[in-house]
Amino acid sequence: MNGTVRRVRREPGRAMSRDVLSRQAPRPYRTLAYGTHRDQVVDLWPAPRDGAPLVLIVHGGFWRAEYDRRHIRPMANALAAAGYAVVAAEYRRTGTPGGGWPGTFDDIAAVADATAGLAARLGADPRRQVWAGHSAGGHLALWAASRHRLPQGSPWHAARPEAAVLSLAGCASPTLAALWDLDEGAARALLGGTPEGVPERYAAADPGWLLPTGVRVTLVHGTADEQIPVAMSRTFAARARRLGDPVALVELPGVEHFALIDPRSAAWPEVLAALAGLVE
């Protein structure tokens, strides 16, 4: 599937899954702090068997404080039931002290750096990791896996990770998000200005400008997504392929934005299939 565009013929329907944002789900096995701020925590679900793959989930919400990790608990519990160890990351967001530039990126880098240790703690295989992000979380997962492409002097520079990336309706490019004015300036709020005003921040924060990475990536995006147009993933995939990166794009006809994190949706089997393909 690497380097391909796969359009799933079955049309799962356009029923909204937005209720997943407030749906009750079992609490995590444990919550650990990685910093002193209340949002610097991760929720953990242990591996159901030794050596299971680990999934790091980065939630979306256009990087804004009003959306937190609780809305991905249905997804996290479903992944644990499917045989994965799960880490659900919280991080400082715009509207929260320390959120935005650079705090959001500090937090995601810290979580990414901790995944190998968390895998060992949860009984998972640290060599079989997928960093999965939904919406703005898709951007952050892609960025975390691209940090080896940052300059050596960057505080976020790191070795290329032993992880693949699954971007679900991902806001892959804050540059495009700013130019398209998605969610009324969400990217500008994150980075403290426009691409023209603070170009150095966009250069450091946009995974599209850090290609090629050599990291395995699968992008899953619904064609009926009204929050982040499927053109976002198409543009990222096209640029990645031109530069020789192993990127796959799975387009789901008629699927909207929230279905990709809803285990009750008709699109969920496609998410599980994409995830399984990255840990084979």
From TrEMBL:
<dbReference type="Pfam" id="PF20434">
    <property type="entry name" value="BD-FAE"/>
</dbReference>
<dbReference type="InterPro" id="IPR029058">
    <property type="entry name" value="AB_hydrolase_fold"/>
</dbReference>
<dbReference type="GO" id="GO:0016787">
    <property type="term" value="F:hydrolase activity"/>
</dbReference>
<keyword id="KW-0378">Hydrolase</keyword>
<protein>
    <submittedName>
        <fullName>Alpha/beta hydrolase</fullName>
    </submittedName>
</protein>
<feature type="domain" description="BD-FAE-like">
    <location>
        <begin position="51"/>
        <end position="238"/>
    </location>
</feature>
<dbReference type="InterPro" id="IPR049492">
    <property type="entry name" value="BD-FAE-like_dom"/>
</dbReference>
<dbReference type="InterPro" id="IPR050300">
    <property type="entry name" value="GDXG_lipolytic_enzyme"/>
</dbReference>
<feature type="compositionally biased region" description="Basic and acidic residues">
    <location>
        <begin position="10"/>
        <end position="21"/>
    </location>
</feature>
<feature type="region of interest" description="Disordered">
    <location>
        <begin position="1"/>
        <end position="21"/>
    </location>
</feature>
